[in-house]
């Protein structure tokens, strides 16, 4: 197994507008991130993924870029970006940025020129058609058609909001401009990129008519514009022209990459270092369907998806493991959705630690999303006016159009909104949780008043203290090598087959390297669970407990939401 800095890294994802507001205007900024570097260092993380802070009208919170070379003035300046990169690097923290190159903002000068002048060279940077009546009628990811008409009567294509026109990747000059921009950022000291929506860049430019799949007469864009054949050459070219030239890391948002293509994506000479898998984080929704459409899922299915991904990636490369990100509700609410309020209050911290344990010690690089280390839970919205997220608003409209009631539509938003993860980071008990002295751009969380960095730093039993311990174990303990490079084996399923019947509630896996074997056990339910027969209980009695979310770690019976990591002796 080839050693790489990014395999050993623990990533922390920052949503800059919600992290820390240093200049007191109600929105987070780069200076704010810089001021919190000591916190990040103390936490133990070694790399940051910072979401977009480029110039943007913020229709999709920065995923609509109007200038790739400049920083949105609300976040700071390009000098601040350079200083932040320097400061992070000096503190042993690498930084990767979000690369949003499937689309730009409609305010980008390229698009403005393209609309103003049909003859402009920028017209072909985007996907324009004079008449779309006989072309694919697709539903964009945020609802409504992918085609929007401009003043001159022509139409442009957008996979996401209408303010996010898709770039035309068939245009070589455009591709070259993008590569120049990527290389420029690499020269500024970034260590790589998270690639946004990258599996959408290839389209069938003939846009053949398709069958509608909803009452709006449209068909899901994902069904026709994701991983379209021909994408491989473009991804290879980009790698060759940019980050493939150095020791950089790339992690791609690439849903739906089929198993047989994984080698090409993340194999030895793959397009990327890692890709994010969505099979377990989107387990609670039907892909491409309205959030309002109910979906039941079982722990068994979750387990299967999680370990299937581990199995597949094991054959080819390296996983990017995550519980949360800026597009997801908080993980406790998602994975423990049916739990009664009282139980939730009682066990929330235990659950947060159990989820953390389950994910953190999987084979691959862990990504922690801001606030996850505090055990943050979803907030509650009382009206749609409080919801900022463009996707949530689109989902609400779509649900109504599909015949759901307002209550059902709103319930779905409250359950799934991306705003849950975007509430301000909670630093202390001051006004706005110390995030800003001004009214924040988005309301603070209404549920988690106790989850602050200051409180949890002083509490040895807190979720934050637990995360620090997990990070130390993975990176700075005698077991670090095994946690990072060890093989992962599902105890009950082996790698491929069922070895022993096991309580559905239990997740069990080992990490092994040479003579070292670590056993990770998590109970996903509020019921006690017995260990399967294949576990040698007598050996466990003797084994050392490396970390546990109960004061006295488990032995033969695993308590509600219990998580424990053992060092087994051979
Ligand atoms: C995926 C990003 O994670 C999300 O936040 C964004 O809205 C879309 N891509 C469009 O860029």
Please describe what this structure looks like.
The protein is built from 18 helices and 22 strands. The protein has an eight-stranded parallel sheet. The chain has a five-stranded antiparallel sheet with strand order 16-17-18-22-20. The model has no long low-confidence stretch (mean pLDDT 95). Strand 17 and strand 18 form a beta hairpin. The chain is globular. It has 570 residues and is α/β, with parallel strands linked by helices. Helix 12 packs parallel to helix 16 and helix 13 packs antiparallel against helix 14. 30% of the residues lie in helices and 15% in strands. 1-deoxynojirimycin (NOJ) binds next to loops. The site of 1-deoxynojirimycin (NOJ) has 9 residues, from loops.
């Amino acid at each position: 197994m080839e050693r790489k800095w990014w395999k050993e890294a623990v990533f922390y994802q920052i949503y800059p507008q919600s992290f820390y507001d240093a200049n007191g205007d109600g929105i987070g900024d780069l200076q704010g991130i810089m001021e919190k570097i000591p916190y990040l260092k103390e936490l133990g993380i070694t790399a940051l993924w910072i979401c977009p802070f480029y110039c943007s009208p913020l229709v999709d919170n920065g995923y609509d870029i109007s200038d790739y070379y400049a920083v949105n003035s609300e976040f700071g300046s390009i000098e601040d970006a350079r200083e932040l990169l320097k400061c992070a690097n000096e503190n042993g923290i690498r930084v990767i940025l979000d690369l949003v190159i499937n689309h730009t903002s409609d305010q980008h000068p390229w698009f403005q020129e393209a609309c103003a002048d049909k003859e402009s060279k920028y017209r072909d940077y985007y996907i324009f058609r004079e008449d779309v009546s006989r072309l694919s009628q697709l539903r964009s990811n945020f609802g409504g058609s992918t085609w929007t008409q401009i003043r001159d009567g022509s139409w442009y294509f957008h996979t996401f909001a209408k303010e996010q026109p898709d770039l035309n990747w068939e245009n070589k000059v455009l591709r070259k401009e993008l590569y120049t921009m990527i290389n420029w950022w690499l020269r500024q000291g970034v260590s790589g990129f998270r690639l946004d929506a990258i599996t959408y860049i290839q389209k069938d430019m003939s846009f053949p008519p398709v069958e509608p799949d909803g009452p709006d007469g449209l068909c899901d864009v994902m069904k026709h514009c994701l991983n379209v054949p021909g994408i491989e050459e473009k991804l290879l070219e980009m790698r060759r022209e940019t980050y493939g030239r150095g020791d950089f890391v790339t992690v791609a948002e690439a849903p739906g990459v089929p198993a047989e293509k994984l080698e090409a994506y993340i194999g030895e000479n793959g397009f990327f270092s890692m890709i994010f898998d969505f099979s377990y984080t989107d387990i609670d929704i039907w892909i491409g369907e309205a959030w309002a459409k109910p979906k039941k899922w079982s722990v068994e299915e979750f387990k299967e998806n999680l370990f299937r991904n581990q199995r597949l990636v094991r054959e080819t490369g390296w996983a990017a493991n995550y519980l949360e990100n800026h597009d997801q509700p908080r993980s406790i609410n998602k994975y423990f959705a049916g739990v009664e309020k009282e139980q939730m209050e009682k066990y929330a911290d235990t659950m947060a630690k159990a989820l953390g344990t389950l994910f953190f010690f999987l084979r691959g690089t862990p990504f922690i999303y801001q606030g996850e280390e505090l055990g943050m839970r979803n907030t509650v919205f009382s009206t749609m006016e409080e919801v900022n997220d463009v996707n949530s608003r689109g989902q609400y409209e779509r649900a109504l159009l599909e015949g759901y009631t307002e209550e059902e539509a709103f319930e779905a938003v409250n359950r799934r909104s991306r705003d849950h993860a975007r509430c301000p980071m909670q630093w202390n008990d001051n006004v706005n949780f110390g995030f800003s002295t001004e009214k924040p751009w988005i309301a603070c969380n209404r549920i988690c008043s106790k989850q602050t960095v200051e409180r949890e730093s002083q509490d040895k039993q807190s979720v934050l203290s637990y995360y620090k311990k997990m990070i130390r174990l993975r990176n700075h303990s005698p077991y670090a090598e095994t946690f990072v490079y060890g093989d992962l084996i599902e105890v009950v399923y082996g790698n491929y087959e069922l070895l022993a019947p096991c309580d559905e509630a239990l997740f069990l896996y080992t990490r092994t390297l040479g003579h070292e074997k670590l056993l990770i056990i998590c109970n996903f339910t509020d019921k006690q669970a017995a260990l399967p027969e294949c576990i040698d209980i007598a050996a466990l009695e003797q084994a050392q407990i490396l970390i546990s979310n109960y004061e006295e770690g488990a032995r033969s019976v695993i308590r509600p939401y219990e998580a424990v990591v053992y060092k087994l002796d051979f």
